[in-house]
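queue> pop job 88
queue> type: inverse folding (structure -> sequence)
queue> payload:
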């Protein structure tokens, strides 16, 4: 049995995470242990695991002046991930609740670099927040890639949000809610590092709905970087260069994707801490 370890459980739009506090980088989180924690019957159950560690103690190369706290994010299968948009909000909520930050605006470090955090509101009980994350620039690429779903080959747009996404817009005769995402849809050609796969239904002006099959986790109820990728692709498809925010509906809730004055993407939505305790596994 491993030594007891403090943990919390949180979610952002029902995209859920186990949070492990390890400020001095002393905890060994092997892929096997991460997968066990994330497993929904023998573990705590989560879409991913977040280690809260000081950037200086994380064993990574960082530039001088990097933020104090590093979001060490792992997918449910134990693999490392560059970024997690909903995870940034839950990570920030945990830092706020634990008194590890004192300002409402601060930076965090991720494998995709610095992300700016803005706490928009917190409830009186101190367990629910509205938070906006500066997600950085998006990079889009027309690769000719396709995704196979429901017996069809659909074109996708590659969108990099610090982690890789491919976005497919559904034809009107293929309802979003009827897609079978119990297994990963195939991509042709397959990206070398894999990708998160988003399927999008257009609802109205600056309003879309989506589902996602996440790399290393399977279908999740929400994906923050995926919502950003979808809004970027939808705005491009609509010829919308206004910078006005888009509403993105996911099975777990609604997120708002916007752009700052520099044209970089922002993501706003809820975060909740729902449990704290001691790990025995």
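queue> result:
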């Amino acid at each position: 049995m491993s030594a007891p370890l403090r943990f919390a459980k949180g979610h952002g739009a029902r995209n859920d995470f186990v949070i492990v506090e390890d400020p001095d980088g002393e905890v060994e989180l092997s892929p096997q242990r991460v997968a066990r924690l994330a497993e929904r019957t023998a573990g705590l159950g989560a879409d991913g695991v977040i280690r809260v560690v000081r950037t200086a103690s994380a064993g990574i190369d960082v530039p001088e002046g990097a933020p104090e706290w590093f979001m060490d994010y792992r997918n449910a299968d134990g693999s490392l991930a560059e970024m997690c948009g909903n995870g940034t909000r839950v990570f920030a909520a945990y830092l706020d609740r634990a008194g590890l930050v004192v300002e409402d605006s601060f930076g965090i470090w991720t494998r995709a670099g610095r992300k700016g955090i803005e706490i928009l509101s917190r409830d009186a009980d101190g367990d629910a927040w509205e938070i906006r994350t500066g997600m950085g620039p998006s990079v889009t690429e027309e690769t000719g890639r396709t995704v196979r779903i429901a017996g069809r080959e659909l074109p996708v747009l590659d969108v990099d949000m610090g982690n890789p996404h491919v976005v497919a817009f559904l034809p009107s005769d293929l309802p979003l809610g009827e897609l079978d995402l119990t297994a990963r849809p195939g991509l042709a050609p397959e990206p070398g590092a894999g990708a998160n796969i988003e399927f999008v239904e257009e609802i109205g002006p600056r309003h879309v709905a989506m589902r996602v099959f996440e790399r290393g986790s399977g279908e999740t109820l929400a994906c923050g970087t995926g919502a950003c990728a979808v809004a970027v692709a939808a705005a491009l498809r609509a010829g919308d260069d206004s910078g006005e925010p888009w509403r993105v509906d996911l099975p777990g809730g609604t997120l708002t994707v916007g752009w700052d004055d520099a044209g970089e993407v922002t993501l706003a939505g809820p975060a909740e801490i729902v449990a704290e305790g001691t790990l025995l596994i």
